[in-house]
Specification:
Layout: E1 5-9, H1 13-24, E2 28-33, E3 51-53, E4 66-69, H2 75-87, E5 91-94, H3 109-122, E6 125-128, H4 131-144, E7 149-160, H5 178-183, H6 194-205, E8 210-221, E9 226-227, E10 233-234, E11 239-250, E12 255-263, E13 273-280, E14 283-287, H7 292-302, H8 304-309, E15 313-314
Parallel strand pairs: 1-2, 1-4, 2-3, 4-5, 5-6, 6-15, 7-12
Antiparallel strand pairs: 7-13, 8-11, 9-10, 11-12, 13-14
Helix pairs in contact: 1-7, 2-3, 4-6
The chain binds NADP nicotinamide-adenine-dinucleotide phosphate (NAP).
Residues 10-15, 33-36, 55, 70-73, 95, 97, 130-132, 292-293, 296 line the site of NADP nicotinamide-adenine-dinucleotide phosphate.
């Protein structure tokens, strides 16, 4: 196979990592997009042959095969770029959390259907993947093989807000009592929860039938004072973040819970991902030092051969071969 020619659309934390990994696996990064090129360091070796572009440069100029889309997550923010990529005859691997289960009931279903029609017409494919595919799909599915009987499946993951600099303290409600958290409306779920989207492909692959779901947002309280890198202290007993929780009931009586902690951590804590399969036997799998952005970038690159080989249109991981490591993108 010739070296795939790749456009990286969005050269931030995930996009830079994806460019590096794709290059290491033999792909040629032919273009990288960002909103503004001013003050950006594009000296990395994987960008040596890449044209550095703002969104006004057409995709057709690059003679590319695949576009890795890492600029945004919401379907409304990826819609125009996806349509342009389809028209330019590109296969797309995206990190959109919302498009991971593309045709679930959601406000943006109409936009997703337009994207699907454009990719079908172009004979090209679109997949959204990332942490969901690796840690929230392949991992629990693999673990389930060892279960004789399952009564409940619980996934818990931490997003460490301490990694995002001082601005992160304005993105999550910190320093509130549980009552203040409630009174200020933070307990009201907004949009589709990250596990609400991520659990359905898993439920389908386990052969279960969804019977209903409950979603809630709970305060995540500090049990002692928590000193942030910004110098700010979160007092004991107040919020250091929140937990976005989704609980699915299934016709088979198996309960599936996803708890996503968006929070600040104590110095001795690390971001973790954990699955617990209750039943016979009870099994768990814990990942510490959970490297979210590295995982996401590796998944989108490792999934390229599957997306290139797939049918045309918008895909979901549960219709693709189980994801796996690709040592080289030239091997297939
Ligand atoms: N699925 C998953 O597992 C997963 C995991 C992690 C992150 N994500 C998602 O991945 C996305 C990217 O995360 P990140 O941390 O890499 O973000 P980031 O560091 O903020 O980088 C975003 C990049 O995209 C560019 N960009 C933003 N809007 C653009 C537009 N309209 N046109 C062209 N370029 C645009 C930015 O350009 P400028 O620098 O010029 O602004 C920047 O290069 C987020 O939406 C996040 O939710 C998904």
């Amino acid at each position: 196979m010739k070296a795939p020619r790749i456009i990286v659309y969005g050269l931030g934390s995930v996009g830079q990592r994806a460019a590096r990994i794709a290059h290491q696996k033999g792909a040629e990064v032919v273009a990288a997009y960002m909103r503004s090129t001013q003050g950006k360091d594009v000296s990395a070796p994987e960008l040596a042959r890449a044209r550095i572009c703002t969104p006004d440069v057409p995709f057709r100029d690059h003679g590319a095969d695949v576009l890795i889309m890492t600029h945004a997550s919401q379907v409304r923010d990826i819609h125009a770029v996806a349509l342009q990529a389809a028209k330019a005859g590109l296969d797309v691997v995206s990190v959109s959390n919302e498009a991971y289960d593309p045709f679930m009931p959601a406000e943006e279903l109409g936009l997703m259907q337009e994207i699907d029609a454009a990719f079908r017409a172009a004979g090209k494919s679109f997949l959204a993947c990332g942490v969901q595919d690796s840690f929230w799909y392949c991992q629990p599915l693999g673990l389930s093989l060892a279960a004789g009987r399952i009564s409940a499946v619980t996934g818990e993951c931490t997003a460490d807000m301490g990694l995002f600099g001082p601005a992160a303290t304005t993105k999550v409600p910190i320093g509130l009592t549980a009552e203040e958290f409630q009174a200020r409306g933070h307990a009201i779920p907004k949009g589709n929860g990250i596990f609400e989207v991520a659990m359905r492909p898993l439920i389908r692959s386990l052969g279960l039938v969804e019977k209903g779901l409950q979603r809630e947002v709970r305060p995540h309280l500090s049990d002692r004072d928590l000193l942030l890198k910004s110098g700010q202290t979160i007092p004991a007993g107040t919020t250091r973040g929140y937990v976005d929780s989704t609980v699915f009931a299934t016709r088979e009586g198996i309960k599936l819970t996803g708890n996503f902690y968006v929070t600040f951590l104590y110095s001795e804590e690390t971001a973790t991902n954990q699955w617990v399969i209750d039943g016979d036997p009870k099994i768990n799998m814990l990942t510490q030092n959970f490297p979210g952005d590295d995982i996401t970038a590796a998944v989108v690159v490792n999934r390229i051969p599957d997306v290139v080989a797939a049918r045309a249109g918008v895909l979901c991981v549960d219709e693709l071969p189980e994801g796996r490591y690709r040592h080289s993108l030239l091997a297939e």
